[in-house]
């Protein structure tokens, strides 16, 4: 959703510049009552451009957004109005997100819009303008401002919020809550006065119900809304290791990596090293286990905690599925598929049924994109793992995080 949404935002601006007679208004909202969304208003001066130009823009915006409509309510309204006796025709798209903070975090990480955590519960909304200035200059459009305005063209961004505003550089404010940047003239200026439009707001985000988890998250002061939060906090706690390429959260999780994470959730890494030193000739029978995972896989095999894809192959480099990894996590939490607590192929639903993710700021629905056949990534593994750390084991009534820290 994130990349496609910003493609659509770029499309609006590009169409405005090259047609020379667009009415473009891009609005965002985020309210204390939990509501929030995005409104895209775009229209062509049909009196000048004619019917053919207008028809080319119909419905293209929504097709490009790629929004998962399971997480948003979307309305599309045709536009037809007169401005200074000129007929404008276009469309208005109103998108209300089911979880605005998460949606903003996911969609605003590109060059067109920024939504970043500043610490101390402060978020910054930013409209980078330097690239837009460069695009206008490269097209030789720096001298068409007067003509653009005369044809009814305008480019306006706005952000409506009733949260506490810490700082901003909006051109003006309406009704004490709507911050507006009118870029109609500035975008064509050869000497623009600012590199970005911005707004900083302080949001009191609901704390975790788990006291231990809440204390941890407050002490680290990380952005809990960010899609990489779970991977980054697991890394800071020592559960997740990266490579020379970083945490690689967008990559497929392999079966070997899944087994390693399973052992870390159980706090078995040190035990595995001891077992390896005391049993140097132990053989699991698996011939495809990489050296870096061998000690851990041998120990998990010894404990009868993992199975291979055959007697001689563990399937180390094969992609792990969400059901396979969730099965391991449920076992770590005291559930047994052997005893009939769940069926491994339905482990994903079992995790939802027991409310494994209920205490997370990011709803499970927001871990999914619009496609249904997505690969199971290290990011999704991190989401499952981090939530499991603070979920009570059904057999011991302990938390995995507590059990590890007490060792």
How is this structure best described in words?
- About 35% of the residues lie in helices and about 20% in strands.
- Helix 8 packs across helix 14, helix 9 (about 255-265) packs across helix 11 and helix 10 packs across helix 11.
- The chain contains 15 helices and 11 strands.
- Mean pLDDT is about 85; it is low at about 1-10 and about 55-65.
- It has 2 domains: about 1-200, no CATH class; about 210-405, no CATH class.
- It has helices at about 1-20, 45-55, 60-65, 100-105, 130-140, 145-150, 210-220, 230-235, 255-265, 270-280, 290-300, 320-330, 345-355, 380-390, 400-405; strands spanning about 20-30, 35-45, 70-85, 85-95, 115-120, 120-130, 155-160, 165-170, 170-175, 180, 195-200.
- Strand 9 and strand 10 form a beta hairpin.
- It is α+β, with helices and mostly antiparallel strands.
- Strands 3-4-2-1-7-10-9 form a 7-stranded mixed sheet. Strands 5-6-11-8 form a 4-stranded antiparallel sheet.
List key phrases describing it.
alpha+beta, four-stranded antiparallel beta sheet, 11 strands, elongated
Compact summary:
The protein is built from 15 helices and eleven strands.
Structural class: alpha+beta
Order of helices and strands: HEEHHEEHEEHHEEEEEHHHHHHHHH
How many H/I helical runs? Answer: 15
Low-pLDDT segments, ≥5 res: 1-12, 54-64
The proportion of residues forming helix, as a percent range, comes to: 25-40%
Number of domains: 2
Intertermini distance: 42 Å
Largest sheet: 7 strands, mixed
Strand content: 15-25%
Q: What general outline do the C-alpha atoms trace?
A: elongated
Please state how the strands of the largest beta sheet are arranged side by side. Answer: 3-4-2-1-7-10-9
Please tally the β strands and state the result.
11
Overall pLDDT level: 84
Q: Over all CA atoms, what is the radius of gyration?
A: 26 Å
């Amino acid at each position: 959703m994130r990349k496609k949404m910003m493609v659509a935002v770029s499309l609006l601006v590009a169409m405005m510049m090259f047609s020379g007679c667009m009415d473009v208004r891009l609005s965002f909202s985020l309210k204390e009552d939990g509501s929030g969304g995005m409104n895209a208003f775009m229209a062509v001066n049909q009196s000048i451009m004619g019917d053919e130009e207008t028809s080319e823009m119909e419905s293209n915006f929504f097709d490009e957004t790629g929004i998962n409509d399971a997480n948003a309510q979307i309305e599309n309204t045709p536009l037809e109005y007169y401005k200074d006796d000129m007929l404008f025709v276009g469309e208005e798209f109103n998108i209300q997100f089911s979880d605005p903070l998460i949606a903003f975090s996911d969609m605003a990480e590109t060059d067109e819009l920024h939504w970043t955590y500043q610490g101390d519960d402060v978020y910054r909304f930013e409209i980078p303008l330097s690239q837009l200035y460069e695009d206008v200059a490269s097209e030789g459009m720096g001298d068409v401002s007067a003509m653009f305005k005369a044809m009814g063209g305008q480019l306006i961004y706005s952000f409506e919020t009733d949260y506490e505003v810490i700082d901003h550089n909006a051109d003006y404010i309406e009704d004490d809550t709507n911050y507006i940047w009118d870029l109609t003239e500035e975008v064509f200026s050869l000497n623009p006065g600012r590199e970005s439009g911005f707004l900083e707001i302080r949001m009191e985000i609901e704390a975790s119900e788990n006291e231990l988890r809440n204390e941890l998250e407050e002490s680290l002061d990380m952005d809990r809304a960010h899609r990489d939060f779970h991977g980054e906090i697991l890394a800071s706690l020592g559960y997740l290791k990266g490579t020379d390429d970083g945490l690689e959260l967008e990559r497929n999780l392999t079966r070997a990596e899944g087994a390693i994470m399973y052992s870390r959730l159980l706090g078995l890494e040190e035990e595995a090293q001891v077992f390896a030193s005391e049993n140097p000739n132990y053989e699991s029978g698996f011939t495809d286990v990489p050296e870096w995972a061998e000690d851990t896989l041998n120990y998990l095999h010894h404990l009868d905690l993992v199975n291979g894809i055959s007697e001689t192959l563990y399937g180390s480099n094969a992609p792990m599925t969400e059901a396979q990894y969730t099965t391991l996590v449920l076992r770590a939490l005291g559930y047994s598929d052997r005893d009939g607590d769940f069926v491994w192929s339905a482990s994903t639903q079992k995790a939802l049924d027991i409310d494994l993710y209920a205490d997370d700021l990011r709803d499970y629905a927001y871990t999914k994109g619009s496609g249904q056949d997505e690969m199971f990534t290290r990011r999704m593994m991190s989401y499952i793992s981090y939530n499991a750390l603070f979920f009570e084991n059904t057999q011991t009534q302990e938390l995995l995080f507590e059990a590890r820290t007490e060792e």
